[in-house]
Amino acid sequence: MNKFLKESELVDYSHASIKSLSSKLTDGLFLDEDIANACFLYVRDEINHSGDFKDKITTYKASDVLKYKTGWCYAKSILLAALLRANNIPTGFCYQRLSCSEYVKDVYCLHGLNAIYLKKYGWYRVDARGNKAGVDARFIPPKEKLAFELQEDEIDLPDIYSEPLDVVVNALKNNTTYDEMIANFPDIKM
Fold first, then answer.
1. What does 8-75 look like in DSSP terms, one character per residue?
2. Distance separating alpha carbons of residues 190 and 176, to the nearest angstrom
3. What are phi and psi of 183, to 5 degrees?
4. In a 10 Å sphere around its CB, with 0-12 CB exposed, 13-18 middle and 19+ buried, how is residue 89 labelled?
5. Which of 16, 85, 115, 154 is close enough to 150 for a disulfide, judged by CB 3.0 to 4.6 Å?
6. Gyration radius from the chain CA atoms
7. Which pLDDT tens digits describe the chain residue by residue (190 residues)?
8. Cβ-based neighbour number of residue 173 at 10 Å
9. Which residue, among 156, 127, 121, has the nearest Cα to 141 in the 3D structure?
10. What's the CA gap between 38 and 105, in Å, rounded?
């Protein structure tokens, strides 16, 4: 489990802003479920999804996602991991391969979410991308309520990663605007 608690360049939970927020969100909470829910709701509801808001910046470090209050699904999952790891809750990264037709026709891309290790349930996946019409992700363990139900030719990648995939990190670092990102969404060959 140690690798799912590790700090890294992107999951920079020792940053003063992350430490402060993780403490504020969880003040008076003791159960890992309650702590995880508080952090999930914050990231889902208080951080813009860059694609929904067509934000002109692409963030990738947790502290920058928090600073600019925006991130693609991948970046939002990085912030959620930082907040949870700061509270000693093992958190990993998961992906779905979905149609990106909302942005670009006939293109598939990865969608980023998290797996949280809850003492009562084990690994539990959550999707903090942000709700909108047709998207209603929730934290209701043991039931998963992710942002998207898989459609034909879409898949859940089976692994839980301790760090975001390199293809995701490269896309976030190299595509700094909305237009660049939608033209270069990360994907893997199936």
1. -SSS-TTSHHHHHHHHHHHTT--SHHHHHHHHHHHHHHHSEEHHHHT-S----SHHHHHHHTEE-HHH
2. 26
3. -85, -10
4. buried
5. 154
6. 15
7. 999 999 999 999 999 999 999 999 999 999 999 999 999 999 999 999 999 999 999 999 999 999 999 999 999 999 999 999 999 999 999 999 999 877 777 889 999 999 999 999 999 999 999 999 999 999 999 999 999 999 999 999 999 999 999 999 999 999 999 999 999 999 998 7
8. 12
9. 121
10. 35
What are the backbone angles phi and psi of residue 140, rounded to the nearest 5°? -140, 60
One-letter amino acid for residue 101 of the chain: S
pTM, to two decimals: 0.97
Name the residue type at position 140. Answer: I
Residue 127 CB-half CA count within 13 A: 21
